[in-house]
Amino acid sequence: MAYSQIRLKILPSIRCLFDKMVRVKVEGLTPHKPVELRSKLVDDKGVTFKASALYKADETGQVDVCSTPSLGGSYTGVESMGLFWNLAPDAPHSKLLKKDVLSPIRVDLEALNGETGELLASESNERGYMTEGMKRIPLQEGRIRGVLFIPPGNGPFPGIVDLYTFGGGLTEPRASLLASKGFVVLALAYYRYQDLPKNPKNLDLEYFEEAVTYLRKRPEVKGPGIGIISISHSGGLALSMASFLSGISATVCINACNANTVLPLHYKDIVVPPLPPVMKNVKTTDSGLLDIRDALPDPTMKEHRASLIPIERATCHFLFAASEDDRNWNSTLFASRAAETLKNHGKKSFEVVTYPKAGHFLEVPYMPYCPSGFHAAVGSVVVFGGQPKAHSEAQLDLWERVQEFFKSHLDNKST
C-alpha cells in the first residue's frame, strides 16, 4: 500500500461552525481492505473524547463516511457525523466543556490499516463558535453578568436571552452559535460567576428583568419583544419571566419543569416556593447511579400548586421540547401540563415537540451525548437517559425548530 497516495479529506473545508455537518472521505486505499477511522478531541477541562468505526474500502479504494456503512466500533451503519456525536469521554460522567468560544474545538481524525493498526492518514477539523465579524462583549451592567453576542451586519436583529442549566457559571456555545444565525444573544449568568452569589438562598426575578430591559434597549436589537431559550432548571426561570415580565415574545423551554424548583423565586412581594422532591421516588440503577426521574411530583396536584408558575399570565409564544427518556425529571409530563394550562385559559400560541429515546441535555447539533453526570442540586452523579443516535437526531431537529420559532415570532417585518 503506497501510503503517500492515501488522503483523509474533510469537506467542504477543515474549518466550520460547530453545528455544521462535514463530509469525511478517505481516498487511495487498497480496494476492499478494512480501514479504521478514529476521532478524538480534548475539551477545556482536559478530558479526552474518542470514537472509532470500522469500514471497508470500495472497489475504487475509497471510504465516504456519508455513504459507506460502518461495520463496527462506536456505531454501525451509515452515519455521516457518527465520528462526532459518538465521541465518548475517557473520564466517566463528563459533559463536553467549552469555556472559550473565541477559539474552535479541534477534532483530530485518523485512518488506520484495519488489519495492522498502522496509521495511514490524518487530518483535523476545527469546529468554531463565532462567525467572521461577530462581536463577543463581556457584560457588567448594573447587576447583570454575562456575555453579549452580536452578529456581523447592520441589524437591528431579534434579541434573545440564553439561560443555561443549574450549576452556576456561564455557558457560551449555544448563545454564540445562535448569534451566528442572525440574533443578538445575551448569555446570562445567574450565580457562581464573577461577583454573583456563590450559593444563593433564592433567585430574584428582578435581576432577570434588568437583563430583559437592558437587551431591549440595545440599539442592535429590534423590537418590540425578545426571546428566551432555556434548558432544565432555567426553564422554570424562563416561564417565570414570560409570566411576570413584559417585553417577551417567544420562549423556548427544553426539558423544563412547569413549576419552580430547587430555590425559592422572589419577584417584588411574590414568593414562588420550590416544588418539594419526594425522596422515596429516587431509585438506584444497576450501575449504582441515581435515577431521579420521578423525584418531583406532579405540580398541578392541589398540595403543590403554590410552586406552579402562572404561565396563563404570559402573552408570548411557547415552544416546549421534551425528551421521553429524560431521567433528570419527567419532562414530557411537565410539558403536557404546561400545554393544558395554556389551553384551559384559551391560549393557542404554544407548540409541544417530544423526542422518543432522547435524554436530558438536548444541546446544539453534534454535541457528544452525555448519559450521566454530576447534578448540582442533588450533589451526586445521576443518569440523564437517552440513546446516542436518537439523542443526536433530536438535537439536530430541535436546533432547526428553535431557529424557525424565533424567526417567525421575533422577526417583526413591519419594524
Euclidean distance between termini CA atoms: 63 Å
General shape: globular
- Overall average residue pLDDT: 95
Helical percent range? 10-25%
Strand content: 25-35%
Please count the helical segments.
Answer: 6
Structural class given helices, strands, pairing? Answer: alpha/beta
Number of separate strands: 25
Show the helix and strand layout:
Blueprint: E1 7-11, E2 15-17, E3 23-27, E4 34-42, E5 48-56, E6 63-64, E7 72-73, H1 82-85, E8 88-89, E9 105-113, E10 119-128, E11 135-141, E12 144-150, E13 157-162, H2 173-179, E14 184-188, E15 203-204, H3 205-217, E16 221-231, H4 234-244, E17 248-254, E18 265-267, E19 270-272, E20 283-284, E21 290-291, E22 317-323, H5 331-344, E23 350-355, E24 372-375, E25 380-383, H6 388-410
Parallel strand pairs: 2-10, 13-14, 13-16, 15-18, 16-17, 17-22, 22-23
Antiparallel strand pairs: 1-3, 3-6, 4-5, 4-9, 5-7, 5-8, 9-10, 11-12, 12-14, 18-19, 20-21, 24-25
Give structural notes.
The chain is of the alpha/beta class. The chain is built from 6 helices and 25 strands. The chain has helices spanning 82-85, 173-179, 205-217, 234-244, 331-344, 388-410, and strands at residues 7-11, 15-17, 23-27, 34-42, 48-56, 63-64, 72-73, 88-89, 105-113, 119-128, 135-141, 144-150, 157-162, 184-188, 203-204, 221-231, 248-254, 265-267, 270-272, 283-284, 290-291, 317-323, 350-355, 372-375, 380-383. The strands form 6 sheets. The chain has an 8-stranded mixed beta sheet with strand order 11-12-14-13-16-17-22-23, with helices on both faces. Strands 2, 4, 5, 7, 8, 9 and 10 form a 7-stranded mixed beta sheet that branches. Strand 16, helix 4 and strand 17 form a beta-alpha-beta unit. The protein starts with 6 loop residues before the first strand and ends in a 5-residue tail after the last helix.
